[in-house]
Amino acid sequence: MSAVIKVNLPSESYDIAIAPGNLDKLGAQMASLNLGKKVLLVSNPAIFRHYGERALNSLKDAGFDVTNCTLGAGERYKNLSSIQKVYDKALENRLERSSTMVALGGGVVGDMTGFAAATWLRGINFVQVPTTLLSMVDASIGGKTGVNHPQGKNLIGAFHQPRLVLIDPQVLKTLPIREFRAGMAEVIKYGVIWDADLFAQMENCDRLDQMRYIPESLVQTILERSCQAKADVVSKDEKEAGLRAILNYGHTIGHAIESLTGYRTVNHGEGVAIGMVAAGQIAVELKLWDEKSQERQVNLMQKTGLPTKLPAGIDIDAIVDALQTDKKVKAGKVRFVLPTQIGAVEITDKVPSDTIHQVLQQM
């Protein structure tokens, strides 16, 4: 079971290669891209312990001159001081314009490595080797890189497309259950915004809360169709001028919840799940979609073990205030991605704040 999905962009196209055992082919795949010899592999301690040696050996066997750098694990390390560590390693190892940074890890490692690559020597090569479900289906594709500011998520960043995204589904076997579920939130998102058939295939699976209950063929389908959905959207709108904003479904309220809980209580996928339930309910209140579709969405979240209610003790006024600092605010108006049917959404800035309040109150 293997697939190659092309991300076609005006600037530079690249492949998303999905196959069991791909991690050991990293060096060979990169060698075929005619990259420079020097490589800096960036990871976090836990991922490096599991997969660092295999990645390094694969690169060395293909003739690359490799060094590595590990950064703290988790969203709270996604800041400029972590980027400084990458720059220090790049300088120490004399990375050049033709050199490559490889991100081995989840979305946080990918975002930071991509941002470091985008800004080192005004932009060097960058390869994504995602090790979490969330980064495989979402964060590693599309060239969004960046770090958090104390006042908000991903406020500092750049668009910098990878030269390759290499996915090995086998590495998901060491992924903690909670992280697997977080990734499933993004997969459900693709079902709602783009791919009704993927949504239905997941509904037909008895359990989605742990990878071991999902048939291998469905795992491959989930990866392929999610990556294809992201590639389709990004190919049509690389810099988020219009269509690409639909990928933010659930993220508007989700980011606010993550931020207000200090990135410690609620992880990204859990925030997105709660945000999707809220957006779905807002769409019901505004008569954009029906109760039955909202029920299907909530049932799929619950089957995956994702939260559908706000975390205890969170201040609703604080959520509404936090929405104003979101990157998606335009001319002072919060833009929401709201579903109209399973497989289609629309973007609107006409959501009355009392509707937001009312829905959050119910949750």
From TrEMBL:
Stretches assigned to the 3-dehydroquinate synthase C-terminal domain: 183-329
Keyword Ribonucleoprotein annotated: no
Keyword Amino-acid biosynthesis included in the entry's annotation: yes
Catalytic function, reaction form: 7-phospho-2-dehydro-3-deoxy-D-arabino-heptonate = 3-dehydroquinate + phosphate
Pathway info: Metabolic intermediate biosynthesis; chorismate biosynthesis; chorismate from D-erythrose 4-phosphate and phosphoenolpyruvate: step 2/7
Binding-site list for NAD(+): G107, V108, V109, G110, D111, T131, T132, K144, K153
Subcellular location: Cytoplasm
Cellular-component GO terms for this entry: cytoplasm
Name of the protein described by the UniProt record: 3-dehydroquinate synthase
